[in-house]
Amino acid sequence: MALYIRDAEVDSLANEIQKLTKAPTKTEAVRQALKHELARARKELPLRDRLARAKAMADALGPNDPNFDMKAFTDEMWGDD
Question: Domain containing 27: what range?
């Protein structure tokens, strides 16, 4: 199946991608660009979803210990007695 690009700007962008990525053909350059854009779009979650995930992770840890001593914890972690 042939790739026909009828828009001059899209053709120029495809040529630039082909040169920058050293793709053997314009079709391969467009394939790579489309795959990268699909991967980027799939990874991009709305802020609401990212915050919900972070909140779920924090909730899974349980409530904070009001008696936790961060100084003692870091001193022990670093071997400072």
Answer: 1-60
